[in-house]
TrEMBL record, chain A:
Pfam families: MCM_bind (PF09739). Keywords: Nucleus. This is Mini-chromosome maintenance complex-binding protein. One of its GO terms (cellular component) is nucleus. GO terms for molecular function: chromatin binding. Belongs to the MCMBP family. Its main location: nucleus. It comes from Lingula anatina. It is found in: Nucleus. One of its GO terms (biological process) is DNA-templated DNA replication. It comes from the Eukaryota.
Automatic annotation (TrEMBL), chain B:
This is DNA replication licensing factor MCM4. Residues 457-485 form a coiled coil. InterPro entries: AAA+_ATPase, MCM, MCM_4, MCM_CS, MCM_dom, MCM_lid, MCM_N, MCM_OB. Belongs to the MCM family. Residues 141-151 have a biased composition (Basic and acidic residues). The keyword Nucleus applies. It catalyses: ATP + H2O = ADP + phosphate + H(+). GO terms for molecular function: ATP binding; hydrolase activity; single-stranded DNA binding; single-stranded DNA helicase activity. Keywords: ATP-binding, Coiled coil, DNA replication, DNA-binding, Helicase, Hydrolase, Nucleotide-binding, Nucleus. Component of the MCM2-7 complex.
Length: 622, 897
């Protein structure tokens, strides 16, 4: 591909060229130029990704991409947007562009004239971005294998080890137990070289832990401590206000890892007289970490991601993807029956619970009416056997099916020690992340069977309240010391408990075991063999897609729903309260979507009613 | 007289407060007297003595200062000095006034441009030891408006501008010389000064904001002259002036101030000092008057700061999140030659000291050493300001900005304060590493503050009024919009409807909550010895579970700026009030405030009120009536303000509301607490088909609402929020004569209802509730007067609420005694009847000294038609015992007499 290397490897030269040509208002041109190059999603696969390429294999000042979640936003900074350089020999002066870089550079025989009146000051925003918390392994691998970036690793095995090594025991364990699935998934992927990857996963675990212990690590502030991958300071030059905390974005921009940026302290001591650094010290170290740990990325363009499902097109509603959507929807019925049989194996053959679990998997907050979040569907599966591998196995299955998930065993220790809500640290001037700082549509798997009777301390109570807030109002209260700020979230929580959970939920389903408890392992290994790579891909596509579909209720159906409500109340006003009607409407929506229907039909409504009835029977029978 | 570029001043190094800048009139000042004074007052700096003099022109207007000066022991000069157009005539003065001469005494003055009149009062002038004529008032340099670059003035032409000459008698000489234009700006110094002097002398403000008032001021008089008067009395040499006033007075000058603050503010300083010392000639101030502008129109959101604002005057508001300790900043370094003891002072220039290498006295190289305790320092403090929560766009984290406070502004704010600061926005480039040709291209930015305006400064004052707090400024359009809205005839319904639109109907409850949000007028009769009356309304919602009570509470919590939401289940008394914690790092005890204190002036939403334990609830007694909270814990005894409205929700004890029971029995709350609620609403499931139908329609519509509608709703919510705070800020209704009569009538009517049955059916507390409700209703209409219609609505709502809450299920009538005493009048009557029955029974027994309890109980039950519980029987016995008819001991009833 001629010309490709130029814009990939030395984008700054192109930018300087555009600058000389267009003058100060060249930024739209830069965006235009690169977007044209990247207009084909295919082209994007040539851009190396920070997510899966070790930093030392990337060239400084080359074009890279980063798929991430915005964790924090730093203050805007002013910089030299254009500066004058003077040739020390000839005395000639040139204007140079200062955008998309951290360091104003010049050649050895040149000097930068800081006092030049032609210098232009610009401002840019800094976002602190972390890899998407809880992103499933299969997503990462699938993205990685789709990449065609020609990065030549210095020594491949070492690189692999490093990447996997940082993962903690828990994740490795599940890699091992669900190895069958993992390998299958890897085989499905087009690229070679992944198979050894996952096979190797077990071995380097120990050195990874060591490495973590040895390094006096800078806290990278990941919401989930298990997360690996680089954090990145993304500098954005436009639309700074349109980004929100917890957004998932894919940035494409210039990588900047000049080590000069780390020596902030030394430099500041020079004019310590003017600016007392005592108060800034900690802030400096957090806001300007060594670029080897936290690289800088000067964003040229950004793609807002609705999802991080590698099997789905980025813009689902785009006209070009209509065919894709309809083809998946056509298959929806059969895929649904596949997944129902898988879930049935997992839930001891409880057909009712399977329906609810499926609805739960595709639920998502789609609108808010004043304080009410519409579409939330928190499921509480009670009757789960205590101290068994069941929650773990079920979580692994969910992990395989969904793109983002996190399992939280609600043990006393976890509740008392972990921090759930993000809290502002004013000393370092950053937002310390918490477990509940999750991206949209992350499945939160709460294992209440791990909870023992005991003492919850103040932190534990706070954490419990935070969970309650997520479930009831879909909001997380961020602690800014002097005030609290509610941030809306869209987290999909499921609670596994023995009896009814102590947390609130939208829908409580007691499990009824059809197959005996000791068959668990057999069931889950059966699932492993049932889910062929091809089927798995299809199911992932299906689940990802229906979650994002638009849904409507036709006029006449609305009328009949209202009729229904009135007549049900006439029969028994206590059995049909406002809340019951709410949950019926949500359930009907999710059921319709699970069948690939974007409009509510009478049949679906009746099905939803039967399900609710059956569930209520089961509840009252208890 | 010399050219205007003659420096008017020389420098003083230390001990400015004592070292008076001497009157430098050529006529009056004699060297001998001056030096004598200098030695006496300032023995540490003998070498400085000769540098005190300032060339000043004798003021023609004021009385010859010489006489007065001779009389005063500390001679006060009173001449307002203009840029020195007059040259000193005798040798002595001229020596002080020319830089060369002064350098003789204090060698090593750097190349600061002394020719500019702007050196006055700025640090770059290195401490000009002179106020215009103010004999006892030393100059203190302003570090807040230090300029990084040296000021340069450019003479433009030399013709006099006579046009404005006559306008100000004080500065009439200003224009005598050629004009001075500050380099790089369009500021003409003399014009600027004169215009500002005029502004001070003439500006009359008819709408003085609350916190700008001062005692005994006359709004018809020039505002700032009165301010100067105040300065002369109080002796705080700061003139705060509102930029908005200046903008009204002279938009051009205002523009110059905003664009070139570091040049224009010193000019203002000069003008004010001249004016002041011409009016108050014998006043001695700690230092010269410093002008502090505030409220400049460019008030910005922290987010909208951009490179164009650098070096401009900006006003932004936010919350202080951190303050550093005091940092002494060297302003002037004092060097001493090791060889010949020659001393040199060097001013800090842009954070650096140009250390003198060559001693001019003994020609030794590198012989200088810094003498720390003879150098000059100023106070400095770094403050971190975060944008206020209201300004935060949803979904984003707040921005912060660094602020440097100088000299006496240090320690004026503490973390948590909401302030508006006015200051100069600065950007300092990161210094290039001399060994590298590449440069880090990022600037460091901060604001040098010149003025703090605290927003909630009055919060701690007892007599505070709402309008002083949280001063929100509305744009004119917004005010207009709100005013128009308030004129609508159906505004009451409209606003009530806007509250939690997703919750269906329940109009009266929404109206009640709406009135709660507006609140009554705060009344304070402490002076007449009657104490304060609560203005906050408390509302209790009780009813069946699943009737969206929590949703209403959540909505209110989201709507009001200072609202807190707690659940009765989770909150302890500690969480509601305040508690002491120990900071793990410093081991300091910290008072942490709980939900009630946090929602001071807001609404405290308490869900699951019934689940709260008794000790927690008892805390609420004080809060809900006295509006204060007393704490005695860990040696800290204090009473905190908790002027909060309580919006509580309670569920019935038996999961469903029992219509056959009174409210007390249903929710099991003590009546003492219940009577503190102004409105108690029942939310019941109506079970009505027509209602169901509309409800269904409402619910279904929730589920297919488009994004646009949502947007609309969002606007509504912000509008409602503005409407509420505007009303709270500006509307303080008072009761009209007619309304007063209506209140009396209403109260009498309420009392009458029960009087027929020998019961008290209304208490003063109910009257107070009525007044509060009527005031809130008037406020909602943006009316400053409570009218009869407000009283009527208050009565209606009050009755509606009572109808639901205080109905005696056995009689079906409203009975206020349920709320005030916990039992209904009918129940009390029944109890009395039972006691009589028992008494009769005992009398029938004849002369028996004792009776068995269980036997009596059985007999009584047989006698009565109605079911008699053990409790009822016990109560009856208790009544008899109180009448000293019987004495009960265990299972034996002894008959007395």
């Amino acid at each position: 591909m001629p010309g490709l290397d130029d814009w990939l490897n030395s984008p700054l030269d192109i930018i300087q060229g555009l600058y000389s040509h267009h003058g100060q208002d060249f930024s739209p041109k830069v965006k235009e130029y690169f977007e044209k190059r990247l207009s084909d999603r295919n082209a994007l696969s040539w851009v190396p990704s920070l997510n899966d390429t070790p930093l030392h294999d990337l060239k400084p000042n080359s074009l890279v991409k980063f798929r991430c979640m915005i964790q924090d936003m730093f203050d805007p900074e002013f910089f030299l947007s254009a500066y004058e350089t003077v040739d020390t020999k000839t005395g000639e002066s040139f204007m140079k562009n200062g955008q998309y870089k951290d360091i104003a550079q010049c050649l050895p025989h040149q000097k930068i004239n800081l006092d030049s009146p032609r210098n232009v000051t610009g401002d840019r925003q800094t976002l602190y971005c972390v890899p998407i918390p809880g992103e499933a392994q299969w997503c990462k691998e699938s993205f990685h294998s789709a990449s065609r970036a020609k990065v030549v690793p210095s020594s491949s095995s070492k690189q692999v080890r490093c990447k996997r090594g940082l993962e903690d025991d828990e994740q490795d364990m599940e890699v091992r137990s669900s190895e069958a699935m993992d390998v299958a998934a890897a085989a499905a992927a087009t690229s070679s070289g992944l198979q050894p990857d996952s096979a190797e996963a077990k071995r380097p675990r120990t050195d990874g832990v060591e490495a973590q212990l040895n390094s006096p690590s800078i806290n990278l502030n990941f919401p989930l401590s298990e997360e690996t991958g680089p954090a990145c300071l993304v500098k954005i030059y436009e639309n700074g206000d349109s980004y929100k905390v917890n957004d998932i974005v894919e940035f494409v921009g210039v990588l900047s890892i000049d080590p000069a940026m780390a020596n902030f302290k030394e430099e500041s001591s020079e004019h310590a007289l003017l600016q007392d650094q005592a108060m800034d010290m900690e802030e400096e170290s957090v806001h300007h970490p060594p670029p080897s740990l936290v690289p800088r990325l000067h964003a040229i363009t950004a793609y807002r991601l609705q999802h991080c499902n590698p099997h789905l097109p980025v813009e689902i509603e785009d006209v070009t993807n209509k065919d894709f959507v309809s083809s998946v929807l056509q298959e929806a019925q059969s895929l649904r029956s596949h997944i129902v049989s898988v879930l049935e194996l997992a839930l001891f053959g409880d057909a009712l619970a399977v329906e609810y679990l499926l609805c739960h998997l595709i639920s998502s907050v789609y609108a808010r009416r004043d304080v009410v979040a519409l579409g939330k569907f928190c499921l509480n599966l009670s009757g789960c056997p205590r101290s068994s591998s069941f929650p773990q196995s079920l979580y692994q299955l969910i992990q395989e099916l969904t793109t983002k998930s996190y399992m939280l065993p609600m043990s006393l220790e976890n509740m008392n020690t972990l921090s759930f809500s993000p809290k502002k640290d004013y000393t370092a001037n950053r937002l310390n992340s918490g477990i509940l700082q999750l991206a949209e549509r992350t499945h939160l798997f709460l294992d209440e069977t791990a909870l023992e009777p005991g003492q919850l301390d103040a932190n534990g109570v706070k954490n419990l309240t935070a969970l309650g807030n997520v479930i009831n109002w879909q909001k997380v209260e961020y602690d800014f010391n002097f005030h609290h700020q509610d941030f809306h979230c869209n987290i999909i929580p499921i609670i596994l408990s023995e009896g009814k959970s102590l947390l609130p939920s939208d829908c409580h389903v007691p499990l009824q075991l059809v197959t005996p408890l000791d068959k668990i392992e057999e069931s889950f290994s059966a699932i492993g063999s049932y889910l062929t790579p091809a089927l798995l891909t299809k199911i992932r596509t299906y689940l990802g897609l229906v979650q994002l579909l638009n849904y409507s209720i036709a006029e006449d159906v609305q009328k009949s729903l209202e009729e229904d409500f009135v007549s049900m109340r006439r029969q028994d006003a206590n059995a049909m309260k406002v809340d019951d009607f709410h949950s019926l409407l949500v359930l009907a929506r999710l059921l319709s979507l699970s069948y690939g229907q974007t409009e509510l039909t009478r049949a679906m409504w009746n099905k939803a009613k039967t399900l609710e009835q059956e569930r209520k029977c089961r509840l009252s029978a208890q | 007289m010399s050219s205007p570029t003659t420096p008017r001043s020389t420098r003083s190094k230390r001990g400015r407060d004592s070292e008076a800048s001497s009157p430098a009139s050529s006529k009056s000042a004699t060297p001998s007297r001056r030096s004598a004074r200098g030695t006496g007052s300032n023995p540490t700096t003998p070498s400085r003595r000769s540098t005190r003099g300032t060339p000043a022109k004798e003021d023609i207007v004021s009385s010859p200062p010489s006489q007065r000066r001779r009389v005063d022991t500390s001679p006060l000069a009173q001449m307002p000095t203009s840029p020195p157009t007059g040259a000193p005539k005798d040798l002595d003065t001229s020596l002080f006034s020319s830089p060369g001469a002064s350098n003789k005494g204090a060698t090593g003055t750097s190349d600061i441009d002394l020719s500019s009149p702007l050196n006055y009062g700025t640090p770059s002038s290195r401490g000009t030891p002179r106020t215009p004529g103010g004999g006892g008032t030393p100059i203190r340099p302003r570090s807040d408006i230090r300029s990084d670059r040296k000021l340069r003035t450019v003479p433009v032409g030399s013709d006099n501008l006579d046009a404005s000459k006559a306008t100000s008698e004080v500065s009439s000489e200003v224009n005598a010389g050629p004009q001075l234009v500050i380099w790089g700006t369009d500021v003409v110094v003399s014009h600027c000064k004169e215009k500002f002097a005029q502004f001070v002398q003439r500006f009359i403000d008819h709408e003085v904001a609350e916190d700008e008032r001062m005692e005994g001021m006359d709004i018809e008089e020039p505002y700032y002259l009165q301010k100067l008067e105040e300065i002369s009395l109080i002796g705080e040499p700061y003139l705060n002036f509102n930029c908005e006033h200046l903008r009204q007075f002279d938009p051009d000058l205002y523009r110059q101030l905003v664009c070139y603050p570091q040049e224009v503010i010193p000019t203002f300083d000069m003008a004010v000092n001249e004016l002041f010392f011409s009016r108050h000639q014998d006043v001695q101030l700690p230092h010269q008057i410093q002008v502090r502008p505030y409220n400049c129109e460019r008030t910005k959101n922290m987010r909208s700061l951009n490179p164009e604002d650098i070096d401009q005057l900006i006003t932004i508001s936010g919350m202080v999140i951190r303050t550093s300790t005091l940092m002494p900043e060297m302003r002037e370094a004092f060097f001493k030659c090791y060889v010949c003891q020659n001393t040199v002072s060097v001013e800090i220039d842009r954070g650096r000291i140009a250390e003198p290498t060559l001693c001019q006295n003994c020609n030794t190289n590198h012989s200088f050493g810094l003498v720390h305790n003879r150098s000059q320092f100023t106070d400095k403090q770094q403050v971190k300001l975060q944008e206020s929560p209201e300004d935060m766009p949803p979904g984003q984290t707040p921005h912060t900005v660094s602020v440097y406070a100088h000299s006496d502004l240090v320690d004026k704010v503490s973390p948590g304060d909401r302030i508006t600061i006015t200051g100069i926005y600065r950007a300092t480039p990161l210094r290039a590493n001399p060994r590298q040709s590449n440069v880090k291209s990022v600037y460091r930015t901060h604001i040098d503050v010149v003025h703090y305006r605290k927003m909630d400064v009055h919060r701690l004052r007892q007599e505070s009024n709402e309008e002083e707090e949280n001063v929100v400024r509305y744009t004119e359009e917004r005010v207009k919009e709100l005013q128009e809205l308030s004129k609508k005839p159906d505004i009451y319904e409209r606003l009530a409807h806007a509250i939690a639109p997703s919750i269906y109907e329940n109009e009266d409850i929404k109206k009640g909550i709406l009135l709660q949000l507006f609140g009554g007028t705060r009344k304070d009769f402490t002076n007449s010895g009657r104490g304060k009356f609560r203005s906050e309304l408390n509302v209790l919602l009780c009813g069946d579970p699943g009737t969206s009570k929590s949703q209403l509470l959540q909505y209110v919590h989201n709507l009001v700026p200072r609202g807190t939401y707690t659940s009765g289940k989770g909150s302890s008394a500690v969480g509601l009030t305040a508690y002491i914690t120990k900071d793990p790092e410093t081991n300091q005890l910290v008072l942490q405030t709980g939900a009630l204190v946090l929602s001071d002036n807001g609404v405290c939403c308490i869900d699951e009120f019934d689940k709260m334990n008794d000790s927690t609830r008892s805390v609420l007694h004080e809060v809900m009536e006295q509006q204060t909270l007393s704490i005695a814990k860990a040696g800290i005894i204090c009473s905190l303000n908790a002027r909060t409205s309580v919006l509580a929700a309670a569920n019935p004890v038996e999961s469903q509301w029992n219509k056959n029971k009174t409210i007390i029995e249903n929710i099991m709350l003590p009546h003492t607490l219940l009577s503190r609620f102004d409105l108690i609403f029942l939310i019941l499931d109506p079970q009505d088909e027509l209602f169901d139908r509309r409800l269904a329609n409402h619910l279904v519509s929730l589920y297919y609402q488009s994004a646009e509608q949502q947007e609309e709703e969002f606007i509504q919510m912000s509008l409602l929020r503005d409407y509420l705070s505007y009303a709270k800020q500006y509307i303080h209704p008072t009761i009209s004569e007619d309304a007063g009569q209506a209140f009396i009538q209403a109260y009498v009517d309420m009392r009458k209802i029960g009087s027929g049955r020998g019961q008290v059916s209304a208490y003063p507390r109910q009257l107070e509730s009525l007044i509060r409700l009527a005031e809130a209703h008037a406020r909602m209409r943006f009316s400053q007067v409570v009218e009869v219609s407000d009283v009527e609505e208050a009565r209606r709502l009050h009755r509606e609420a009572l109808k639901q809450a205080a109905v005696d299920p056995s009689t079906g009538k409203i009975d206020i005694s349920i709320l005030t005493t916990g039992i209904s009048g009918a129940a009390r009557k029944r109890r009395a009847e039972l006691a009589q029955t028992v008494k009769k029974l005992i009398q029938e027994k004849g002369k028996v000294p004792t009776l068995k309890y269980s036997k009596m109980f059985d007999e009584t039950r047989e006698r009565s038609d109605a079911l008699i519980t053990k409790e009822m029987f016990n109560e009856a016995l208790q009544d008899l015992q109180d009448d000293s008819y019987i004495l009960r001991t265990g299972n034996v009833i002894r008959i007395l007499e």
